[in-house]
Specification:
mainly alpha; MetI-like fold; 2 domains
Length: 283
């Protein structure tokens, strides 16, 4: 039996608060920097309290009115591109993974196990490994600076296929037999039984894959050359000029804060489903 010791409880809370402070302090500094002018940020010591220029900096970021040496692409446009790209990747990954796992588990065809392991082996070939041929194919098809070029090379997911396969294998055979006796075909069984049972797993994967798609850096860096198709992560990189050029760090920090809001909103909104999908064994 675990003893309740007030001292240990206080220590645990102190460690938790310290951990939160370590994680939150850089975010707080970014927010403070987004409320000051660029000259105030670079002076030593940097201000640690919010300044009076918050609305001006965020307006400049959203509308592309920054004065730095880097890119001045509107952040509102970049966030729209990032949102569309992340949603296409997320919905595409979940849809393809559901159908592929359904086929591997419930259909009998030659080399079924070979097909599954061929899908699973692609985990060793992420986009960073096949970046050269992938770029060549996308370029030859004329998909650079398009939503299709940004999302299609990232849309398949062996991990999601594996997770859905493992879940489908836990579905009782009695459900399959009952559906067959009621005259339900394969797709009716898929839509009416498997999908409702998989909603928590789908919610958990939605959160993970949305953040994955939103935070993509390397592939959008290669697949976009037009400011109209910059994602917000690429936009932050383009806003920072190299060398001795003066950067509008206040606008850069405002952009960084804005870029964190959609993933945070998705996590907060779907937190209950996300946790349930990861830890609940009774689907």
């Amino acid at each position: 039996m675990v003893e309740r010791r007030p001292g240990l409880r206080v220590l645990a809370h102190l460690v938790m608060v310290l951990g939160i402070a370590i994680v939150a302090f850089p975010l707080y500094l970014a927010f403070v920097a987004s409320t000051h002018t660029a000259s105030e940020i670079v002076q030593a010591p940097m201000p640690l309290l919010p300044g009076p220029h918050m609305s001006d900096n965020y307006k400049a970021a959203l509308l592309g009115e920054g004065s730095g040496a880097g890119s001045h692409a509107p952040v509102a446009r970049m966030m729209t591109v990032s949102l569309i790209n992340a949603l296409i990747i997320t919905i595409g990954k979940i849809s393809i993974s559901l159908l592929s796992a359904f086929a591997v588990v419930y259909f009998r065809f030659p080399f079924r196990s070979v097909c599954f392991w061929a899908i699973f082996v692609t985990l060793m070939l992420p986009v960073e490994v096949r970046i050269g041929p992938t770029y060549q194919v996308v370029s030859d098809l004329g998909m650079l600076n398009t939503y299709a070029g940004l999302s299609i090379p990232l849309i398949a997911s062996a991990t999601a296929t594996f997770l859905f396969r493992q879940f489908f294998m836990t579905v009782p055979d009695e459900l399959v037999e009952a559906a067959r006796m009621d005259g339900a075909g394969p797709m009716r069984f898929f839509w009416d039984i498997l999908l409702p049972l998989s909603k928590t797993s789908m919610a958990a994967l939605f959160v993970i894959q949305f953040i994955y798609g939103w935070n993509q850096y390397l592939w959008p860096l290669l697949a976009t050359t037009s400011e109209d198709m910059y994602t917000v992560v690429i936009g932050i990189k383009r806003m920072i000029a190299g060398g001795d050029s003066a950067n509008a760090w206040n606008v850069v920090m405002a952009t960084a804060i804005l870029a964190m809001l959609p993933p945070a909103f998705v996590v907060v909104l779907m937190q209950k489903w996300f946790v349930k999908g990861l830890v609940d064994t009774e689907k």
